[in-house]
Write a structure and sequence with these properties.
Distance between the termini: 49 Å
Largest sheet: 8 strands, parallel, barrel
Oligomer: single chain
Number of strands: 12
Number of helices: 13
Order of helices and strands: HEEEEHEHEHEHHEHEHHEHEHHHE
CATH topology: TIM Barrel
CATH architecture: Alpha-Beta Barrel
Bound molecules: flavin mononucleotide
């Protein structure tokens, strides 16, 4: 695929994500079925709460990553710059979008070169696992990390999205063995993520001992990439049931925690409020990632991204305060009740 084609597809993705109803229609994250334990006498001071944590050996001011979105197109350069400035100012982590375009077309590297704006933030690169069946290996992964000075790289797996994408990658066979080998060859932390259909407990079980630095369960209930691909391809949804398929984020998280309690976990897919963040942490996540809600602010300015994220942090702190959790460690020990 040439640069223009890849960049055009990226622009279509952005347009659809901004202007079409790409959220799941009949499926929710499931966080609404859980309640945090409200405490009328919490013994905490809202102004003194500590939302800091450490993730992949880097300090974060709150357990939040900006989710993987984009790169390549000119518009993506502005988006990534504003996301990077916001991540740096707030002390949060930043996951970039797929770097395939820059590996195949080095001129696209500029849109991923965000270290100038975010010299100290936790920066996570991105590639698709399906590329491992198209000749990519540890060399390409290391190049993707080192070219942009990332701390780690997330490999995304997305069979449903690819199946619905025009000329998408169809061959996901043999990937487990390749992943197991590649992790040993890459001297940087690697993460595995879905894109919003969720990692099932079977998949978590298959990869739990591979050595991934974290698993991002990326469940259903937020952005449906199956819907995005159908809008890009047809301008309409032709397979309503298929595009609403996925493992609700809360379920994927609870299942993953059960399969591998000590594994570092990211909860993402439909994280929209500070309460979602608090519930995800209480259910076993170490951090959350938020993607599409930050897209429109990122096209506007770094300040708009900061405003959106600050609102989520403030809401998270109110949730912590009213449960009596003075820090993230305390938040993680809360027992949620099921409605
Ligand atoms: C515009 C846009 C582009 C995305 N591109 C990528 C990508 O390149 N690689 C990836 O792993 N995930 C990508 N995603 C998926 C997100 O990282 C995330 O898993 C998904 O959108 C669900 O989270 P959300 O409900 O918070 O949007 C993209 C999401 C958006 C909104």
């Amino acid at each position: 695929m040439d640069t223009l084609e890849l960049a055009t597809r990226k622009l279509k993705h952005l347009d659809v994500c901004l202007n079409y109803p790409v959220n799941y229609q009949t499926r929710t994250t499931g966080f609404e079925f859980y309640d945090l334990p409200y405490q009328a006498l919490p013994e905490t001071d809202l102004a003194k709460l500590d939302s800091r944590c450490t993730f992949l050996s880097k300090p974060l001011s709150a357990p939040i990553l900006i989710g993987a979105m984009t790169g390549g197109a000119e518009k993506a350069k502005l988006i990534n710059k504003n996301l990077a400035l916001a991540a740096e100012q707030l002390g949060l982590g930043l996951m970039l979008g797929s770097q395939r375009v820059m590996l195949e077309h080095p001129e696209a590297s500029e849109s991923f070169a965000v270290r100038a704006y975010a010299p100290s933030c936790l920066l996570i690169g991105n590639l698709g696992v399906a590329q491992l069946n198209r000749g990519y290996g540890s060399r390409e992964i290391i190049r993707a990390i080192e070219t942009i000075g990332a701390d780690a790289l997330a490999l995304h797996t997305n069979p449903l999205q690819e199946a619905l994408q025009e000329a998408g990658d169809e061959d996901f066979s043999g990937l487990l063995a390749k992943l197991e080998t590649i992790i040993k060859e890459v001297p940087y932390p690697l993460l595995l993520k879905e894109v919003g259909q969720g990692l099932s407990k079977e998949v978590v079980n298959q990869v739990k001992d591979f050595g991934f630095a974290a698993l991002d369960i990326a469940g259903a209930g937020g952005t449906s990439w199956a819907r995005v691909e159908e809008f890009v391809r047809y301008g309409e949804i032709r397979h309503a049931e298929l595009t609403d398929w996925g493992i609700p984020t809360a379920k994927a998280l609870v299942d993953a925690k059960q399969v591998t309690p000590a594994h570092t976990l990211i909860a993402s897919g439909g994280i929209r409020t500070g309460l979602d963040i608090a519930k995800a942490l209480a259910l076993g996540a170490d951090v959350v990632a938020i993607a599409r809600p930050l897209l429109a602010p990122a096209l506007d300015s770094a300040e708009a991204v900061i405003e959106k994220l600050q609102d989520l942090i403030d809401e998270l702190k109110i949730a912590m305060h009213c449960t009596g959790a003075k820090d993230i460690a305390a938040l993680k020990t809360l027992e949620l009740s099921k409605r």
